[in-house]
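Notes to self after the call with IL:
- keep both proteins in one doc
- input above output, always
- annotate only the second one for now

Protein 1:
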Amino acid sequence: PPIAGLPDELLLEILARVPRASLPPLPAVCRRFASLLASQAFLQLRRASGRLRPCLLAVSSSSARALLLHLHASASASASASSLEVSALPLPPRCGGAAFAHARAVAVGRHVYLVGRGATLRVDPLTGAARACALTLFPRSKFAAAAVGARIYVSGGSARTAAVEEYDPAADAWRVVAEAPRRRYGCAGTGAAGVFYIAGGVAVSGGGAAGTAAHACAGSVDALHVGSGTRVWARHPVLVIPQHRWTWASP
């Protein structure tokens, strides 16, 4: 078609003016559209034309269905009165039902990754496009997740394994990179300065359901340094001394 013969610069100008509600299906048109819509130039043009607005992603999940909602400020909202427009984003196959029960959201670049027990979803809040990604190697619930650099790390949420998994968005693949000292459940995660921190929750031990025991570990933090390839775990709240390469101490 004639549009395929347009140069990238002109096609970007056209795509940047497409209404927000019409953007979600465009990355599936062809690889060229997907590449242009994911580019920094598209983001800059969208911002220059005043079409970028604060938005919020929300997931509603039940045993029957999952619903991904996109909430953003209305274009007609005045400075004194704010209003929200809510739209449902289409979910890819494998992302229905209870796939996102107790899921974790992690931002890498301009994408938001929803990591659930039965699905992993990459959402572009700018275009509304959602794509199913590789599942974690071990099913998890109420686990710790965070971005460190350009990769995602998850730990906890399973009584069967203490494995820490790393996700590479470029390769769309998970791999085990370490073993945590505790099998935490209901924990929280964050990343800073090349370190993945896992805090709180309960420590679960034991093999079967009948023999599983748990005790609170709300006052402890486990930390994995992933930036330099060395992995150091701390079993208690830690203090990082910047003068050394990586020094852990108990307060």
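Protein 2 (the one to annotate):
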Amino acid sequence: EIIDLTESLQIATTRLQALNDSAQTISSSLELHQVLDRLVMNTSDVMGVRACSIRLLAAGGERLEVAAVFGLSQAYLDKGPIELENNPLAREVLSGKVVNIPDVTNTSLLQYRDFTVQEGILSMLSAPLIGKNGPLGILRAYSDERDRFTKDDEFFLMAIAAQGSIAIENALAYQAMEALDASKSKFIRTVTHELRSPVTVTRSLLRTITAGYTGEVNGQQKDLIERAIRRVDFLQKLIDDLLDLAAGKADLKSHDVSGPLPL
């Protein structure tokens, strides 16, 4: 009994340390693929199991797609789509439950049971990845032993899934911000390129007039045209700055765009 208690304490200590290490590891990056890859590798290693995977809900929420995997063959991953209407295990897990299947040969929850057996998987443990606005996907551990997973394993995988859910949402938010920045840059480039041509033409025509090529210009007319040229020149500088900003190399100290327009 003393030996069993010592082993239990060692396992508990190892897992607490693993939770701490996992939190630090998955929070060290905002790149989604890096976060997920680290999560499945760490989980598989700490639990001492054959494999681990993460499947995330696709847009529309009707199917799950493989997002990260460790220890599974490509043939197993290519077995077919995981559609919620055909996969009772996925539906049960995404409802918020940790599902322990002690023997994959004796369950009705698996959509691809024969493929799972061929892969050498005999038991599996699944935990939901839950975000602020609902389920994100499933974290799953696989073993080549029957009755591999205990209640402690269930609590541990749920804790890992809770950490992973936060990291995934942060990574998705970062990904969305990058996409938004790219869209904004593209919009800026499009608008400024469209503005550049008429501004250049307008400046050229005004300078042609002030040079006297279209006839004599009196002093008052010349003054008004030169004021218009200064406005156009200022607009050209703004366009150039916007193009630099879209390219990520702007130095907005060149002039104060918040100040009054030149007269």
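Annotation: The longest strand covers residues 134-143. The mean pLDDT is 82.
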